[in-house]
Design goal:
Blueprint (H helix, E strand, L loop, with lengths): L23 H15 L2 H20 L11 H62 L4 H24 L20
Helix pairs in contact: 1-3
Length: 181
């Protein structure tokens, strides 16, 4: 099938054709600033002053009543402001949602790392407890040394007084008899 337009393909866009392009991030930052300003008390005070002056000039003004009593032009201005403010506020909210989502993902990853670290430390602590449980503690050694000290004191006291009966908890060694044959 022959191509139309002298070799230009119709299924691909033209090269070099410039379109009106807007930086989405820059526009989003601008809309966020506007939305933040629209939510301030300063904006509300300024708007209230403008509306009061508008109404006063149109009710009592002798010259140039440009917007008589139903204030249709003022309503048109408010409608235009609302038509632009609503999408800007929504765009700012979407941008905030994106930031919140990123922060939530980072918090979730941090919590997972913390949980893994905590589980690792718990396993290490359990291993240390097992290792310490197999070693002699200071209190155990102190008790054993006190028992030995008491036995030595008893043995010294018996030796000084003469030979007395052996301690009850120690067995007498057997004497070996020689076989005579």
């Amino acid at each position: 099938m022959p191509e139309a337009g002298g070799g230009r393909r119709l299924d691909q866009p033209r090269v070099g054709r410039r379109r009106f392009e807007v930086d989405p991030d820059g526009f989003a930052r601008l809309s966020e600033r506007i939305a933040r300003f629209l939510g301030t008390g300063r904006f509300l005070a300024m708007q209230t002053i403008v509306v009061v002056v508008w109404i006063v000039l149109n009710l009592v003004g002798w010259w140039g009543r440009w917007d008589p009593y139903p204030f249709i032009l003022l309503n048109l201005a408010f409608s235009t402001q609302a038509a632009y403010a609503a999408p800007l506020i929504l765009l700012a909210q979407n941008r905030q949602d994106d930031r919140d989502r990123v922060a939530l993902d980072e918090d979730r990853r941090r919590a997972e790392r913390t949980k893994a670290d905590t589980e690792f430390l718990a396993r290490e602590l359990a291993a240390l407890r097992l290792a310490v449980g197999e070693t002699a503690s200071r209190d155990y050694l102190r008790g054993e040394l006190e028992k030995l000290s008491e036995r030595l004191d008893d043995a010294v006291a018996r030796a000084a007084a003469g030979s007395g009966p052996p301690p009850a908890d120690r067995k007498q060694p057997r004497k070996r008899e020689r076989f005579r044959g």
